[in-house]
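Troubleshooting: if your tokenizer reports a length mismatch, compare your output against this known-good record of 215 residues.
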Amino acid sequence: MTHLEKASLCELLASLFSPPDREMEKLVQEGSLYFFLKKFTDEWGEGGQLLKGFLVENNSENLGEELKTAYEHLFSDLQEDRIGLIESFYKPWTQDPHCSLLFASSKGLLLGDSALHLLAIYERCGLVIPEEFKWKPDHLVLELEFLSQLYRFKTDQEIKLFIEHHLDWIPSLKKEFEHFHAHPFYVSTIEILDLFLKRERERLEVVEHGSKKND
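Known-good structure output:
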């Protein structure tokens, strides 16, 4: 995969983790989403089994409502028991050993260290956070959109650091999908993301070791 292809994949994944809309429904209905991703899974040696959640039987006319219901069930803030798509939820609120707050080491809270770090990065890059993400700058959708920009404009070293520091919680998120028995569409989405990041970590390790040998 080229860096531009990886940038496009990250943008697509960000949209898949966003509330489903008519455009996304159309991509699934037409099979465009499946075939776009299949060229990558084939390249990864995974075939199409990973993508079965993107296949629609009998051209279901209720797909849009089905996806919206599944999304709200899994991720809606109105649901008491739901999956969080926010990095801070999966890590201690702060790693600061001098923080005396009782909840300092607690998980499941907003605006933890990861969020504050990303706020600083976004500000340095001149990025404006959409209003809906003001209290969750470490939301997966924003992180994937930012990773897309890194693939377009930054180095492998910067990409590696971002994946290591801000996308290391995806295996924990994947376990949540299993726990909630997520809709096949979202199972395929998290599987693709997890596999892509695993392969990128492996690639970037090789690149880094190669650079060190050449120094």
